[in-house]
Amino acid sequence: MIYKIITKNFMKEYAIPIILAVFALLITLPFSVPRLLGYNKIEYKDFYNFQVDVKENKLVGMLNKYRSIRSINDKCYFSYCGFPKEGRYEVSTLRLVYINNTPYIFYSCINSGECFYNINDSFIESKKNEGYESAKVLLFGMLLAIIGMIIEVLIKSFIKKK
């Protein structure tokens, strides 16, 4: 019976929506499946020996000759980005953590060896979980849209037959 529904007219009429749905699903899969399977990409990158100003819960400064902190991520998640107060600091090491290709300032160490953390491990885990949840919602929404479109096509073809 289903074979009779899928006729040449059916294919002519509904080929474009079905192709678009499959295309949308194929575009969505590479972004969502790795996150669903737990392949959360976490990388670290260090910068050394520069000055930074802590102002209004933001870090201001140049990581090197060409790159500013603001161009990466200057947002503080703890007050003063973990530093004791606003002001200028000589930073010996600044570590960035990239969670699913989004950079965050992990910690900064000053020349005396004292380190100040901007984020902690629970923050990193929450960002990993956000990526997982958004991928799950995206994939589930796409599948629902495709199933809904197939049901709509089948209902329309049944109505036309009667």
* Secondary structure: number of strands: 5
Strand order of the largest sheet: 2-1-3-4-5
Helical/strand content category: alpha+beta
Which H/E pattern describes the elements? Answer: HHEEEEEH
The radius of gyration is: 25 Å
Overall mean confidence score, pLDDT: 78
**Gap between N and C termini:** 14 Å
Largest sheet: 5 strands, antiparallel
Number of discrete helical segments? 3
**Principal-axes shape call:** rod-shaped
Detailed description of the structure:
This protein has helices at about 1-5, 10-35, 120-160, and strands at about 40-55, 60, 85-100, 100-110, 115. With about 160 residues, the chain is of the alpha+beta class. The chain has two domains: about 1-35 and about 135-160; about 40-120, no CATH class. The protein has a five-stranded antiparallel β-sheet. Helix 2 runs antiparallel to helix 3. The chain starts with a helix and ends with a helix. The model has no long low-confidence stretch (mean pLDDT about 80).
Give keywords:
alpha+beta; 162 residues; rod-shaped
Topology, element by element:
Layout: H1 2-5, H2 8-36, E1 42-55, E2 58-61, E3 87-99, E4 102-110, E5 115-117, H3 121-161
Antiparallel strand pairs: 1-2, 1-3, 3-4, 4-5
Compact overview of the structure:
Helix content is 46%, strand content 27%.
